Amino acid sequence: MRIAVMGSGGLGGLFGGLLASVGAQVVFVARGAHLKAMQDAGLQILSELGDVVLDTVDAVEDLNGREPVDVVIFTVKGQDTKAAAKLIEPVVGPETAIISFQNGVEWLDILSDHFSPDNMIPGTTMTPAAIEKPGVIRHVGATRPITIGEWNGKKSDRLHDFADMCQRAGLDVTLSDNIHRDIWWKFVAMATMSALTCLTRLPVREIVATTETRELADQSMDEIIALAAARGVELPADIKPRIFAIAESFDPDWKTSTCNDLEAGKPIEVDSLAGAIHRLGLDVGVPTPLQTVAYKALIPYAKPR
């Protein structure tokens, strides 16, 4: 299977590296010191589930001149979606599956408009992974869950083929017949914890273990659940306790990637999370006071500093 990883940071590096370790032909799109480290010394994945060392990998800054691939794993930050869509054009053919694990919900429209819904296999994941240093990915936790599904809900051959390879690579795959609902499920969790880790600088487990910040998380989830309902997306009744249970299982020091970027002085993915909630809330008449405060407080950090 030929795979291009668009955005080879924490998630992209983890998924691409694991798939390469079981025989997939993977090209990693990266930049800066991380790209150079992969070109010079390959890629390492550090995980309590077992380390993976790839002495050599195919790592590039752009995909010009490449043939279409079977799968594009799309894991860039929300603010980079449009630019990254242009970068993958050379390798996207009529049969190419674009499997996106992005945060938020607005990327669905961007990618499906730029290419076609037929190219899209939306996905979600709650797998924590980050670049520990250039060329090294750190995965934390005892599982590596992903959920993927065809845009139309059908169980296609390409969906099963990719799922089979992911299982061989050590990923815990769920095939969804309603991936749009699952994306909103993740949006409730990610947007909530992203906002609160950035505003408090606390790890996720400490947020849910502290009464006052747990109440803020509960309020945020209520806002996004109401927004989903207004847009015709019905979420499971037990979504909040399930999200709290996942948060309680995280490493005690784990923060969201948004908070990690904030503390590292990088532009943060706030516009596609809290910003999207603020805009969608205004569009459908659903109040989103907590997420609106998060958006207005954090939007200055969306620019390079």
Question: Can you offer a commentary on this structure?
Answer:
The chain contains twelve helices and twelve strands. The chain is an alpha/beta fold. The chain is globular and about 50 Å long. The termini are far apart.
Keywords:
single chain; about 300 residues; 8-stranded mixed β-sheet; 4-stranded mixed β-sheet; alpha/beta
Topology:
Blueprint: E1 2-6, H1 10-21, E2 25-29, H2 32-41, E3 43-46, E4 52-54, E5 58-60, E6 71-74, H3 81-87, E7 97-100, H4 106-114, E8 120-125, E9 129-133, E10 136-139, E11 145-148, H5 157-168, E12 172-175, H6 179-200, H7 204-209, H8 211-230, H9 239-249, H10 257-263, H11 274-284, H12 289-298
Parallel strand pairs: 1-2, 1-6, 2-5, 3-10, 6-7, 7-8, 11-12
Antiparallel strand pairs: 3-4, 8-11, 9-10
Helix pairs in contact: 6-8, 6-10, 6-12, 11-12
Brief synopsis:
The protein has 305 residues and is α/β, with parallel strands linked by helices.
Strand content: 15-25%
Average predicted confidence as pLDDT:
95
Distance N to C terminus: 40 Å
Instruction: Work out the number of β strands.
Output: 12
> Any low-confidence stretches, pLDDT <50, length ≥5?
none
- Rg, please? 18 Å
